[in-house]
Design goal:
heterodimer, A: mainly alpha, ABC transporter involved in vitamin B12 uptake, BtuC, two-stranded antiparallel sheet, 14 helices, 2 strands, globular, B: 346 residues, alpha/beta, Rossmann fold, 6-stranded parallel sheet, 4-stranded parallel sheet
């Protein structure tokens, strides 16, 4: 008997198409949980302090914005395949902040420093991609190693001294328009840009394909090597951009600037409803996840809980969300 | 075939990297010489300005002693915040045969084994700055945190007439020195019951973290006219208040260049008055002096106190003029001063 290989097209969902109301569709969105949680946390803060304050949300939104940028950098890497993480992200953020503050191209040259910073981020991403594609090292190990290499660059650059970035850039970031800070607006613009890249460009679609089923994507003509390069360069550039924003907005740098963004970035992605197994991204979800985490931390401070209790509760929030997302997706199977 | 090539390449690159790492380690190995004092300095991390100041002070003291005819060399290692790494580094310094180890311990118990190794090999160990250890064989050079609490709180109380609402910015949660400073503040505050702490955040001894955490709760804070912090938060806290369009409350500044420059700026703009009180990175110079004294045969007590200085606005405009943002102020303690006031103190 001849072995037959047939290419059959199977519908993606074997169940018959049932009409779903738009409300229902809204409710099953992956980020709905995060949105509900964010509103609940805001109401909780209002209850504790006795007044519902919009500026509380906006102040936290600015901080959550930073966390979101780190989150989407991590999200792109996670989406590229199961088990992919970028452990070098906190170091790239710190490195970007230092390059921005070091003023290599002249103290007042903000555009020059910015270009240099983004290029440094891209190079860091390229290093990661090189280790992963050429040397076939798993992403976790490769980014761990490159993280240490970048850390030593940070120590080297640190001895050269730094100063405030200042100038028009700092003034823009700190400006307030109707309660919104300039940096929050810039962060939102970045998020919109990344969302477009991830959902409307060939690169974005190929990234999702590769994350969902690497073998099928390869057969469909997706070049894994170039895609990994693009993903990590995107992650590196976002990390460096975040570092530059932090350095300018806060008016200073320190070697542990990026430290809280490692686990925080993964937490934001997870709490936003994105699956860790890869192949799916949601910029909006990650942004909401970051907002939930930031509001939770602020609420815990307002509730005057001990620092130990704060850590435990934050951990439970992330754990709880992972369980909920896992339960949801096993229901959908 | 392709897989085989990739594997060979990986092995080659891996081998090259390892060889480079070893070569680097060899090149920076110790140079042994007679009559030269080698002091191992185990830094906990290089992350903040305070640690930079500590190292600068230690190096200054070594240079001063070298100018006076002694031969002192510092061998500096950095544990990047990890106690396990610090254990290995202490053991490495012991194997290298340094004459003395100055240690900023990342843990008060985990390092005891490594410290015992060093002391049994005839290398005295001095713990300082970041905290102490429970091992009684280590010489301890610390700040009197009660003195810090007294000076700090009494300045604030003096300026506010003993009353006010305060925001308390703490340091790195779980750290022994952080708890000691907090306890000292609380103790000193018992004398001024009308100063109330209305909110508390952890600044992690990091200006950016302090700024973010303060910004997050600022909209919901009642009127706050005092800020307490632990030396590395005043700039961040002020930024948070200024971005929210509020006046910077009374606070005591640290020794960082950013803090000092901000204080000078606020003073020039609106006559804002304050001082800088902080644990002094200059303790690094005291540590080196104590090490040399002990190695010269002078009897050094097991527990010593290093002073807490107050740097006034005047000092900032004169002695510490022109500090860059990345600098830190520290007081220079020379060998004779250390002998008289620290080693032989009553």
């Amino acid at each position: 008997m001849m072995s037959q290989s047939t290419i059959t097209t199977t519908p993606l969902d074997p169940r018959p198409e049932t009409p779903v109301s738009s409300w229902r569709r809204l409710l099953v969105q992956s980020w709905m949980g995060a949105l509900v949680a964010a509103v609940a946390l805001w109401l909780l803060a209002g209850w504790v302090t006795g007044s519902l304050s919009l500026s509380f949300v906006l102040a936290n939104a600015t901080i959550a914005g930073f966390l979101t940028l780190a989150g989407i950098a991590q999200m792109a890497v996670i989406a590229s395949g199961p088990g992919n993480f970028d452990l070098s992200l906190p170091y790239v953020i710190t490195f970007g902040a230092y390059v921005m503050s070091a003023g290599f191209l002249g103290q007042g040259n903000i555009l020059g420093s910015l270009a240099l910073t983004l290029m440094a981020g891209a190079l860091a991403g390229a290093l990661n991609a090189l280790l992963i594609v050429r040397l076939r090292i798993p992403a976790i190990v490769a980014t761990l190693a490159s993280g240490y290499i970048i850390y030593s660059l940070i120590v080297a650059i640190q001895s050269g001294g730094f100063s405030r970035v200042g100038g028009l850039f700092e003034a823009t970031l700190r400006m307030r328009i109707a309660g919104l800070s300039g940096v929050l607006v810039i962060t939102l613009l970045t998020l919109v840009l990344v969302a477009i890249v991830l959902s409307r460009t060939v690169f974005g679609l190929q990234l999702h394909a590769m994350g969902q089923n690497g073998e099928a994507a390869r057969l469909a003509g997706v070049r894994r090597g170039w895609l990994i390069l693009g993903t990590f360069v995107l992650s590196g550039v976002l990390g460096a951009w975040l570092g530059a924003l932090l350095a300018t907005y806060q008016g200073g740098v320190s070697a542990d600037l990026g430290r809280s963004y490692l686990l925080g970035s993964v937490a934001a992605v997870v709490v936003g409803g994105t699956r860790i197994t890869g192949g799916v991204t949601s910029v909006f979800g990650t942004a909401l996840g970051a907002l939930v985490l930031t509001l939770a931390q602020s609420d815990l401070i307002l509730l005057q809980l001990s620092i130990g209790a704060q850590y435990v509760i934050q951990g439970l929030i992330v754990l709880g969300t992972v369980c909920l997302v896992a339960a949801r997706s096993s229901n959908n199977r | 075939m392709r897989r085989g090539n990739a594997k060979r390449r990986a092995v080659m690159v891996g081998g090259l990297l390892l060889a480079a790492a070893f070569a680097g380690a060899m090149a920076t190995g110790p140079v042994m010489a007679e009559d030269k004092i080698t002091i191992g300095v185990a830094m906990p991390f290089q992350g903040n300005g305070w640690q930079k100041g500590f190292l600068a002070a230690a190096q200054w003291a070594a240079a001063e002693l070298n100018a006076k005819g002694k031969e002192v060399e510092l061998s500096v290692v950095d544990a990047a915040g990890d106690p396990q790494t610090q254990i290995q580094q202490i053991n490495n310094l012991t194997l290298q045969g340094v004459d003395f180890i100055i240690l900023e311990p990342l843990s008060d118990t985990a390092l005891n084994g490594a410290i015992d190794n060093a002391v049994n090999a005839g290398i005295p160990v001095l713990t300082t700055a970041l905290g102490s250890v429970t091992d009684s064989k280590a010489v301890d050079l610390q700040f009197d945190y009660d003195e810090l609490g007294e000076k700090y709180v009494s300045y604030i109380a003096e300026r506010t007439g003993g009353k006010g609402n305060a925001l308390n910015i703490r340091g790195l949660a779980g750290n022994a020195a952080e708890q000691a400073i907090q306890d000292a503040y609380v103790k000193a505050l018992t004398k001024y019951p009308d100063i109330k702490i209305v909110a508390e955040v952890y600044g992690d001894w990091n200006q950016s973290v302090a700024q973010q955490r303060v910004s997050a709760i600022l909209p919901t804070l009642p009127d706050v006219n005092i800020i307490f912090s632990q030396g590395v938060a005043a700039f961040g806290a002020a930024q948070a208040f200024m971005s929210a369009g509020r006046d910077v409350p009374l606070q005591i500044y640290g020794f960082d260049g950013v803090d000092a420059n901000l204080l000078l700026e606020l003073n020039a703009k609106s006559g804002y008055q304050s001082v800088a009180i902080n644990t002094d990175p200059g303790i690094g110079s005291v540590a080196v002096n104590v090490a040399v004294a002990k190695l010269s045969g002078i009897d050094v007590p097991m527990k010593m106190i290093s002073p807490i200085p107050t740097i006034t606005l005047e000092d900032l405009k004169t002695t510490y003029k022109g500090m860059a943002d990345s600098d830190i102020a520290w007081v220079k303690y020379d060998y004779d001063w250390t002998l008289a006031n620290v080693i032989h103190a009553k």
